[in-house]
């Protein structure tokens, strides 16, 4: 048995699978996010440990015999978070999260420094880890002085499980401290933000074991001793492992809190100015690139909250088949935007509101706006040389067939909808655990899931949505000028 633990933005998901990759049991636990000031987003790492205890206890209650046969654990999690640890490994402050934008000024300064983009392969976004430490140095110097090591969120779980300070290549890629082409920490990048190698965890490929569960903790949790813990992966790299996106041209579209369009690459081919992320994959010798928008289902959830409605009910009311583009435009920049704008200050807008519009028009505009933003990401990816012939849909928003047909038409790509089952980051983490515990080759473990349906672009609407996207792209500079 193999366990994948996915540390998500709002909760931790545990997935137990057997050697045939059949789902045995699933459990979840949530935790809060604090927003102490505008642009700030923080979580208490101790809440993650409490959630992990809850999930493991629930899995044991549901599948006691299977959990007694546990051989490996893999962790995945949200990227870029800064967990600052003292010499005794105690956290020094709450984790500064991926969607925290307080370090925009520090990110801009670091991004302008010599060699930073060339070595990291990426723009330094405000959400990345390095500018967060620069912010701490400037605003909380006493905390930085006590910081002996910095780990990423999922690696805090690994530390708790094993006592090892370790990370994997995919998660390290989002720090602005990694030479992504060489797959090693860069002394130049570390020095640019005032850090040293001694403050970094050890680097591993995601399929490598980094240790076993501490004997005392195994006994406390009622787990077998000697369970292997893999280096794991960042959430999107883990999701790529979960749906078998390893080869050049494989990819997925994720409709989660954020929106992601990911393409696997067989070589390091960055183009930072496109605002596309170029990261190491969780498996050796591979990379991936992705366009990221900061508010995908977050946009729908925001609308539902303000309409006092259920998000699923709003999308269900639209049916399964799309019509022409709406007259109402929505810019999904509720938390700023990454690809292609790299603009933490931009904010969202509705354009073209009419007195006769209601819930259906607002909902369609939100889904359409997210789709247009993902089309921006596709154009940026293609500009780097990434190739996508089709994508697999994952994330909570993929439950809406309407949204997927809209995306297929906007992206002009077939979208594969997996059959019922678990194929996200938790599955990828469990697959990484399988490789670490058994030595199996990633290609043998990380296979594509069975597909329930392939949703094709609507030929009759392709030209209309292409025109709609062109109009959408013209809105960004106008809104940016108004908000300056």
TrEMBL record:
Instruction: List this protein's GO terms for biological process.
Output: D-xylose metabolic process; xylulose catabolic process
Q: Domain (Carbohydrate kinase FGGY N-terminal): give its ranges.
A: 1-242
* Important for activity (site feature) positions: 6
Catalytic reaction annotation: D-xylulose + ATP = D-xylulose 5-phosphate + ADP + H(+)
Q: Where does substrate bind?
A: 79-80
Indicate the segments annotated as coiled coil, or none if absent: none
Which GO molecular function annotations are given, in alphabetical order? Answer: ATP binding; D-xylulokinase activity
Q: Which UniProt keywords apply?
A: ATP-binding, Carbohydrate metabolism, Kinase, Nucleotide-binding, Transferase, Xylose metabolism
- Entry's Pfam families? FGGY_C, FGGY_N
Instruction: Identify the EC number(s).
Output: 2.7.1.17
Question: In the UniProt entry, which residues are flagged as the active site?
Answer: 235
All residue ranges annotated as the Carbohydrate kinase FGGY C-terminal domain in the record: 252-437
The record, for HAMAP family, names: XylB
Q: What does this protein do?
A: Catalyzes the phosphorylation of D-xylulose to D-xylulose 5-phosphate.
Annotated family: Belongs to the FGGY kinase family.
Protein name from the UniProt record: Xylulose kinase
Higher taxonomy: Bacteria, Pseudomonadati, Pseudomonadota, Alphaproteobacteria, Rhodobacterales
The gene that this protein is the product of is xylB
